[in-house]
Amino acid sequence: MPTEPVEILLVEDNPADLELTLHAMRQNHISNRIQVARDGEQALDYLFGRGAYSDRVSEYPLKLVLLDLKLPKVDGLEVLRAIKSDPRTKMIPVVILTSSVEEKDLIGSYNWGVNSYIQKPVDFEQFRETVKQLHLYWLLVNQAPSAIAFLAGSGT
Amino acid sequence: MMTAQFKSLLISSAKSLAQAVSAIVILTGCSILVGWLYGAAFGMALLTSSNIIVFAVLLYRTTLWLKRSDVERERAEDMRCASEVRFRLLVEGVEDYAILMLDPLGHIVSWNRGAEQIKGYRPDEIIGQHFSCFYPTEDRERGRPEQELSVAASKGRLEDEGWRVRKDGSRFWADVVITALRDEAGCLCGFSKVTRDITDRKRAEDTLRESEERIRSVVDTAHEAFIAMDSEGRITDWNHQAESTFGWSRSEVIGQPLAQTIIPPQYREAHRRGLEHFLATGQGPVLNTRIEITALHQDGHEFPVELTIAPLRLGRTYTFNSFVHDITARKQAEETLGRQKAELARSNAELAAANKELEAFTYSVSHDLRAPLRQISGFSQFLARELGPRIDAAALHHLQHIQKGVQQMGRLVDDLLNLGRVGRQALKEQLTDLHSLLEAVVADLKPEAEGREIEWIIGQLPSAKCDPGLIRLVFANLLSNAIKFTRHQEHAIIQVDQMTLDGEVVFFVRDNGVGFNMRYVDKLFGIFQRLHLQEDFEGTGVGLANVQRIIHKHGGRVWAEAEPYKGATFYFTLGVASQSEREITPAQRGVACRQNQ
Question: Which of B375, B381, B413 faces A17 most closely, judged by CB atoms?
């Protein structure tokens, strides 16, 4: 059964935050297929087709990775570094979505070439609005390279 | 020159001796002759030829003897005269000594060339005068000349040193010997007086003594112990400080071996070998340099000293001079300092660890406390939505409180994080145009002031050396407060300017808002301290604490003045360091422009 290609990878360890994020997406009528990873290792396995995802065929590139920083096993900055230093994944837009606005996290993220850094607002209304704008910008306004160009760019 | 009187005295005494001898001889001869004449008168019969021969021989012999003693007497007389002349010439020719004769009462009877040179009188001026004219007035008044004569007369001789006076009134230091002269009968016939001018020697001795006294005084008043040791290793000098440093008195240690006195047993052998080595080779590594060593006190305790030893060659032997300083206190201070340094290093390490922990804590606050807040916020909203029209007013009210609580908690967390960040952050000072910075802050705050009538009075602020990011936070906080607390004023006035107070530039932000009671001014800058109700004026009580922290970081001061319902003024300075760097021209200071919102 052919399935719709996954467009967004959401990396979030906190179940309540995960539910809130998914809820906000639903409320904003985001219909793209979303893959959830609960820690850094799972995210990397999914991105590079390893472990539980070794049979994943990635004909279509991801359109967005939403990445939390504080994650079990492999933390967000390491996941970002892996994405941005691998030719297969370096073109994927990565948005850090986290509670922290610590200077060292901001600097670390931009050093590794993050595309955007967003602090999750405490107020849910604001959070929902943020998710809405995120989706609007990265999946609708922003122009990503085509899948062909993507594959060519990645050299595979 | 001897006087005739004295000469005749000498000659006459010699002559009278010769005459006495002659008289005895003649009387003896005469008695024999008289005896013989008696014999002739009463016993001519007894006269025999042999008797006549004996008499003739006797007579002849007596005549011969008398003739011979006369010659001898004359010869002795001549010899004596020659010796007298030589003696007189000798005495008169002496120039370094004043040699004079006094009569029994002290009048001068003879005067040699030396006397003339030393005292300045010619013989004709002084002979016959009383010798007391050589004494200073004070001695004369005390009767010293007479006393000296009487001592010389009774003891035969007197030696004295003292000031004497020359003819011209100048003084000289004299060494005087007065000898009584007595005739054969023991009668006092006068005095000889020999005087030497030893002023130069006296002066040299005085100078030497003064110099010695000075050195002694320096050594004795020195704060360092002074010890001298001879080549035998015996103590030859020991000053007051040495007494108190080592506990031995000077009299106890002079002549004692140094090693047995102040050198701890374990170093005595090294000391002995060092001394031997130096005496044999002239080399000693510990000489003429500052060394630290352990010394022994009289009471047996050992203590650290610092000392220098300087050898001084005296002919074929040496003396070793040493200054010794008790450094017990210094050593203790060094130890204390070392201990304190170690303690400081330890507390620094602890502080660094605590800081790291705090950093980890604030990081987790920023990350972990916000997540549950968002969840409370989100799920309470879902709840409201799911209940939909079934929700009653009370439940809605509670949910609204939950939302407000979450928002307030969110702000608190954010403010706390900011405060922590300001505390940790190092100052990034640079010369900053405060006027432009202030204008930017005012522009940022426009949304907060929307719909309000606010008169802004912005003075011309100078450039100053400060951390622009942090000072921007200060202005943002103070102006935001001013906007907030003038909320109930129809016509709000907010003034920002600078002034000079006691030579120091002071910045201020003044408003005509609700103000506050000065009774609570101490609480104003405390963290979480608020002077207003949350429902009147929202806030976390962190803003002014942050302002104070930033100003203190700059080395400045911040304070406030206010009156309830009449407004408040917040003042701050940027510290001395930035003060000198500040560039303010008088023209700038005078300018104040009014800007209306």
Answer: B375
Contact, B451 vs B593, CB < 8 A?
no
Nearest to B375 among A16, A100, A103 (CB): A16
Partners of B370 on chain A (C-beta within 8 Å) are: 99, 120, 122
| Chain A neighbors of B373, CB-CB under 8 A | 122
Strand partners, B323: B226, B308
The model's confidence at residue B45, banded by pLDDT at 50, 70 and 90, is very low
Q: Locate B25 and state its tokens.
A: 């001889």
Note if the pTM is more than 0.80. no
* CA angle, A61 then A63 then A66, to 5°: 120
Residues B469, B440 contacting (CB under 8 angstroms) = no
- pLDDT score, position A148: 63
| CATH superfamily for domain B427-596 | Histidine kinase-like ATPase, C-terminal domain (3.30.565.10)
The reply to whether residue A100 touches residue B363, judged by beta carbons under 8 angstroms, is: yes
Contact A123/B407, CB-based, under 8 Å?
yes
Question: Are B374 and A125 a contacting pair at CB < 8 A?
Answer: no
Contact at CB, A100 and B371, closer than 8 angstroms = no
pLDDT in tens, B70-93: 788 888 888 888 888 887 888 787
| Chain A positions in Cβ-Cβ contact with residue B378 (cut-off 8 Å) | 16, 20, 23, 124, 127
C-alpha B311 chain-centroid distance: 25
Whether the domain at B94-204 and the domain at B222-326 fall into the same CATH topology: yes
Residue B94 has a CB neighbour count (10 Å cut-off) of 16
- Fold for domain B222-326? Beta-Lactamase (3.30.450)
- Give the residue extent of every domain in chain B: 4-87, 94-204, 222-326, 336-410, 427-596
Q: How is domain A6-154 classified at the CATH fold level?
A: Rossmann fold (3.40.50)
Compare CB distances from A122 to B373, B382, B417 and report the shortest one's residue. B373
Enter the ipTM. Answer: 0.74
- Domain B94-204 sits in CATH at 3.30.450.20
Tokens 């901001």 locate to A106
Q: Is the pLDDT assigned to residue B59 strictly greater than 90? A: no
